[in-house]
Design brief:
The chain is mostly beta strands and about 160 residues long. The chain has 2 domains: about 80 residues, no CATH class; about 45 residues. Helices cover about 10% and strands about 25% of the residues. The chain has a 3-stranded antiparallel β-sheet, with helices on one face. A 3-stranded mixed β-sheet has the order 5-4-8, with no helix packed on it. Strand 4 and strand 5 form a beta hairpin.
Length: about 160
């Protein structure tokens, strides 16, 4: 294993004051990163007001090792969203793909919206075709009989020739 593959670390953001969830010095977020990740702004996680509240828990790790430690630390402290602990992490760790909040699906979050079925009538062959709004940018064919590719639009379609 080369030293260039051990570039990851696991970090924690510590509370600077007491809260209803935890006391001063306890972590409120655990993450995995490389380079300046721990000091960069995150999408839904507030950065600590002081850099002294950013702690590197483990460093010089492989990616797999850092993911394992991140998961272990999140499991140890627990998550607020599933009432198991004090962290604001929204997943169980490991690149944010495992353990999303159980009741997250079915909310109005755009990622989990149910697709809407729309339809159009092909100007070329007159066939009515339905499509899902989940993949609106995808090009479709209205049928096997019609060799024209169409851009999806509700009501009618605009024929486009194949390239």
């Amino acid at each position: 294993m080369t030293s260039s593959s051990c570039i990851y670390y696991v970090y924690a953001y510590l509370r600077s004051e007491d809260s209803d969830t935890g006391s001063v010095g306890t972590p409120y977020y655990i993450g995995k990163g490389k380079g300046p990740r721990a000091w960069n702004k995150h999408k839904n996680v507030p950065l600590p007001k002081s850099n002294k509240n950013i702690v590197i828990l483990e460093s010089s790790l492989t990616e797999i090792g850092s993911l394992a430690i991140e998961r272990r630390m999140i499991e140890w402290y627990g998550r607020k969203d599933n009432q198991t602990g004090i962290l604001i992490n929204r997943t169980s760790g490991g690149d944010g793909v495992t353990g999303p909040k159980p009741n997250f699906r079915g909310t109005n979050h755009p990622r989990y919206k149910e697709p809407v079925i729309k339809s159009f009538i092909c100007k070329t062959c007159g066939e009515k075709t339905e499509f899902s709004t989940k993949n609106d940018k995808e090009r479709i064919f209205c049928s096997r009989r019609c060799a024209v590719m169409h851009v999806k639009q509700e009501g009618q379609c605009k024929p486009r020739k194949r390239k």
